[in-house]
Write a structure and sequence with these properties.
single chain; six-stranded mixed sheet; alpha/beta; globular; about 15% strand; Rossmann fold
Length: about 300
């Protein structure tokens, strides 16, 4: 028998076996009231350290409600089935670095709502500028500092020079698992579309390269070298780690050609999927220039975006 025929025969045998045992599997999958409760508890993600009493009960209840909402039946109710939604790309035990934060609402969402245990948020603005621009920041900052341990927030951080900051330098053998830049934009530098496109492309390229640099120390000064030239490289982003960028759909963002920019910097484009605002409770997009007086500006949550 040829290899092709042998593979076909194995596939047919697997199909026949699955048809034979499918009814039994469905019957066995129906849990009793006690085993069902145990399974539900076993599947509940671990909660963030520091929660107590009522906080734990509220967090468990909230997650159960969200899980129930995500389990659409596909019977014409209009709900999206859980299998059709892309999972949140932030692991609860990953070392996560967020850059270019505005009011730090995404940092709060990941740490408090999602339950990520190791999140660090950074902003390009100084702390004074953040407080002046975003009225929501003081409350968010208080929530994050009250956690155990407190979520670190760093200001005046340039996303194009990440590995030059001692405060962001990863400890030995613990580089960042995920670095995320949500809705990067240089701001209103010009009304010329082509100039804006080039400026934002330069921002992204510098950001990508900064994620891949290997910081070393030389006479107290920060220098950089390739992993090949460094006998004991300590990468900023771990091998196989993720760089996440979120952009709005349509022009001018599609003109940035982010896939080509990433490949040019040595990154592999793994996937692209719709950004689901509803999966990040409490997160609100804020424009680069901060809150617009009078509230007449467009809201990011009303626009389609991709991650």
């Amino acid at each position: 028998m040829s290899k092709t025929k042998a593979k076909r025969a194995r596939r047919e045998a697997k199909r026949e076996e699955s048809r034979k045992f499918a009814p039994h599997a469905r019957k066995a999958a129906k849990p009793s009231s006690t085993t069902g409760a145990a399974a539900s508890n076993a599947q509940t993600p671990k909660l963030r350290p520091g929660l107590k009493g009522k906080e734990i009960r509220e967090e468990v209840r909230r997650r159960k409600v969200e899980a129930a909402k995500g389990m659409g039946t596909g019977t014409g109710t209009g709900n999206v089935q859980a299998s059709q939604k892309h999972a949140i790309p932030f692991g609860v035990y990953d070392r996560i670095l967020l850059v270019g934060e505005g009011d730090f609402s995404m940092t709060r969402c990941l740490a408090v709502e999602i339950g990520c245990a190791d999140v660090t948020g950074t902003s390009f603005d100084s702390e004074e500028e953040v407080r002046e621009k975003y009225p929501t920041f003081p409350t968010i900052s208080t929530d994050l500092s009250a956690l155990t341990p407190p979520v670190p927030l760093h200001h005046t951080i340039d996303a194009t020079k990440l590995s030059t900051y001692k405060t962001l330098k990863p400890p030995p053998n613990h580089p960042w698992d995920t670095i995320a830049f949500l809705f990067p934009h240089v701001g209103g530098l010009s009304t010329d579309v082509n100039r804006q496109v080039r400026s934002n492309q330069a921002l992204l390229v510098s950001f990508f390269k900064s994620c891949l640099e290997v910081p070393t120390t030389d006479v107290g000064k920060a220098t950089f070298s390739s992993a090949a030239a460094n006998a004991n490289p300590r990468p900023f982003l771990k091998m196989g780690g993720k760089v996440i960028v979120t952009l709005f759909e349509g022009e001018p963002y599609t003109l940035w050609n982010i896939r080509d920019l990433a490949r040019h910097c040595g990154l592999k484009v793994v996937e692209s999927f719709k950004f689901d605002w509803g999966m990040y409770p409490g997160y609100g997009h804020v424009r680069t220039l901060g809150a617009i007086e009078g509230g007449g500006a467009w809201r990011g949550e009303e626009r389609e975006a991709r991650m």
